[in-house]
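testing teh design pipeline on a random one, pls ignore if ur not involved
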Protein backbone atom coordinates (compact mmCIF):
# COMPACT_ATOMS: atom_id res chain seq x y z
CA UNK A 1 0.00 0.00 0.00
CA UNK A 2 1.01 3.63 -0.47
CA UNK A 3 1.29 6.20 2.27
CA UNK A 4 1.79 9.92 1.66
CA UNK A 5 3.68 11.95 4.29
CA UNK A 6 2.95 15.67 3.96
CA UNK A 7 4.73 18.45 5.81
CA UNK A 8 3.69 22.07 5.76
CA UNK A 9 5.44 25.42 6.01
CA UNK A 10 8.78 25.89 7.78
CA UNK A 11 9.22 22.19 8.47
CA UNK A 12 12.03 22.21 5.90
CA UNK A 13 13.93 24.11 8.62
CA UNK A 14 13.67 21.31 11.20
CA UNK A 15 16.94 20.71 12.99
CA UNK A 16 17.67 24.40 13.39
CA UNK A 17 14.18 25.79 13.86
CA UNK A 18 13.25 26.49 17.50
CA UNK A 19 14.70 23.18 18.73
CA UNK A 20 13.09 23.72 22.15
CA UNK A 21 9.74 23.19 20.41
CA UNK A 22 10.63 20.99 17.47
CA UNK A 23 13.71 18.97 18.48
CA UNK A 24 17.08 18.49 16.81
CA UNK A 25 16.15 16.04 14.04
CA UNK A 26 16.04 17.33 10.49
CA UNK A 27 13.14 16.43 8.22
CA UNK A 28 15.55 14.14 6.34
CA UNK A 29 16.39 12.32 9.60
CA UNK A 30 12.70 11.78 10.27
CA UNK A 31 12.04 10.64 6.70
CA UNK A 32 14.95 8.16 6.86
CA UNK A 33 13.51 6.48 9.92
CA UNK A 34 10.04 6.34 8.38
CA UNK A 35 11.44 4.81 5.21
CA UNK A 36 13.09 2.05 7.23
CA UNK A 37 9.89 1.26 9.11
CA UNK A 38 7.85 1.29 5.89
CA UNK A 39 10.14 -0.94 3.88
CA UNK A 40 10.24 -3.53 6.68
CA UNK A 41 6.44 -3.56 6.43
CA UNK A 42 6.34 -3.62 2.60
CA UNK A 43 4.74 -0.20 2.36
CA UNK A 44 5.65 2.53 -0.09
CA UNK A 45 6.09 6.01 1.33
CA UNK A 46 6.02 9.28 -0.57
CA UNK A 47 7.25 12.47 1.06
CA UNK A 48 6.31 16.02 0.21
CA UNK A 49 7.06 19.25 2.03
CA UNK A 50 5.96 22.67 0.91
CA UNK A 51 5.68 26.17 2.25
CA UNK A 52 2.82 26.82 -0.19
CA UNK A 53 -0.77 25.94 0.63
CA UNK A 54 -1.76 25.29 -2.99
CA UNK A 55 1.06 22.76 -3.44
CA UNK A 56 -0.06 20.79 -0.41
CA UNK A 57 -3.62 20.87 -1.70
CA UNK A 58 -2.45 19.63 -5.11
CA UNK A 59 -0.70 16.69 -3.42
CA UNK A 60 -3.86 15.85 -1.49
CA UNK A 61 -5.82 15.86 -4.77
CA UNK A 62 -3.22 13.66 -6.47
CA UNK A 63 -3.36 11.28 -3.50
CA UNK A 64 -6.75 10.18 -4.75
CA UNK A 65 -4.91 8.21 -7.43
CA UNK A 66 -1.70 7.28 -5.63
CA UNK A 67 -2.20 6.96 -1.87
CA UNK A 68 -4.16 4.85 0.58
CA UNK A 69 -3.34 6.86 3.68
CA UNK A 70 -1.99 10.31 4.55
CA UNK A 71 0.16 11.38 7.49
CA UNK A 72 0.20 15.16 7.65
CA UNK A 73 1.88 17.81 9.76
CA UNK A 74 0.10 20.85 8.34
CA UNK A 75 2.25 23.17 10.51
CA UNK A 76 0.77 26.67 10.67
CA UNK A 77 -1.90 25.77 8.07
CA UNK A 78 -3.43 23.65 10.85
CA UNK A 79 -4.74 26.80 12.39
CA UNK A 80 -5.67 28.72 9.25
CA UNK A 81 -6.56 26.54 6.30
CA UNK A 82 -10.16 25.77 5.51
CA UNK A 83 -8.90 25.00 2.00
CA UNK A 84 -6.64 22.18 3.19
CA UNK A 85 -9.49 20.81 5.30
CA UNK A 86 -11.81 20.88 2.30
CA UNK A 87 -9.23 19.07 0.16
CA UNK A 88 -8.85 16.29 2.74
CA UNK A 89 -12.62 15.98 3.02
CA UNK A 90 -12.97 15.85 -0.75
CA UNK A 91 -10.57 12.98 -1.34
CA UNK A 92 -11.87 10.88 1.57
CA UNK A 93 -8.47 9.35 2.30
CA UNK A 94 -7.96 8.52 5.99
CA UNK A 95 -5.34 10.70 7.62
CA UNK A 96 -3.51 11.22 10.89
CA UNK A 97 -2.55 14.76 11.96
CA UNK A 98 0.88 15.01 13.57
CA UNK A 99 2.50 17.85 15.50
CA UNK A 100 5.97 17.70 16.97
CA UNK A 101 5.11 20.09 19.78
CA UNK A 102 2.13 19.89 22.11
CA UNK A 103 0.03 22.58 20.47
CA UNK A 104 -2.31 22.67 23.48
CA UNK A 105 0.53 23.72 25.77
CA UNK A 106 1.40 26.69 23.54
CA UNK A 107 -0.26 29.93 22.41
CA UNK A 108 -4.07 29.90 22.27
CA UNK A 109 -4.03 30.44 18.50
CA UNK A 110 -2.48 26.96 18.17
CA UNK A 111 -5.25 25.26 20.16
CA UNK A 112 -7.68 25.15 17.27
CA UNK A 113 -7.14 22.89 14.29
CA UNK A 114 -9.23 22.99 11.11
CA UNK A 115 -8.34 19.34 10.52
CA UNK A 116 -8.60 17.48 13.82
CA UNK A 117 -12.32 16.70 13.72
CA UNK A 118 -12.03 15.03 10.32
CA UNK A 119 -8.73 13.26 11.12
CA UNK A 120 -8.69 9.65 12.11
CA UNK A 121 -6.40 10.61 14.98
CA UNK A 122 -4.12 13.37 16.19
CA UNK A 123 -0.65 13.04 17.73
CA UNK A 124 0.81 16.15 19.32
CA UNK A 125 3.75 16.70 21.64
CA UNK A 126 5.73 13.50 21.15
CA UNK A 127 8.34 15.06 18.90
CA UNK A 128 9.62 13.23 15.84
CA UNK A 129 8.40 9.95 17.31
CA UNK A 130 4.87 11.14 16.55
CA UNK A 131 5.44 10.45 12.85
CA UNK A 132 6.65 6.93 13.61
CA UNK A 133 3.63 6.22 15.79
CA UNK A 134 1.34 7.53 13.06
CA UNK A 135 3.08 5.30 10.51
CA UNK A 136 2.71 2.25 12.76
CA UNK A 137 -1.01 2.97 13.10
CA UNK A 138 -1.36 3.38 9.34
CA UNK A 139 0.49 0.12 8.62
CA UNK A 140 -1.65 -1.81 11.07
CA UNK A 141 -4.80 -0.50 9.44
CA UNK A 142 -3.67 -1.05 5.88
CA UNK A 143 -2.76 -4.64 6.74
CA UNK A 144 -6.08 -5.44 8.38
C1 LIG B 1 3.56 22.33 14.42
C2 LIG B 1 2.75 23.24 15.37
C3 LIG B 1 2.18 24.44 14.64
O1 LIG B 1 1.45 25.27 15.54
C4 LIG B 1 3.30 25.28 14.05
O2 LIG B 1 2.78 26.34 13.28
C5 LIG B 1 4.27 24.46 13.24
C6 LIG B 1 4.63 23.11 13.68
C7 LIG B 1 4.26 21.19 15.16
O3 LIG B 1 4.71 20.26 14.50
O4 LIG B 1 4.39 21.22 16.39
O5 LIG B 1 4.83 24.95 12.26
O6 LIG B 1 2.65 21.76 13.48
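output:
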Amino acid sequence: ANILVLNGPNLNLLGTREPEHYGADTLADIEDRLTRIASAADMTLRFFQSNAEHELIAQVHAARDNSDFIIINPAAFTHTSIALRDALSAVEIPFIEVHLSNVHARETFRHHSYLSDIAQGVISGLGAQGYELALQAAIKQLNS
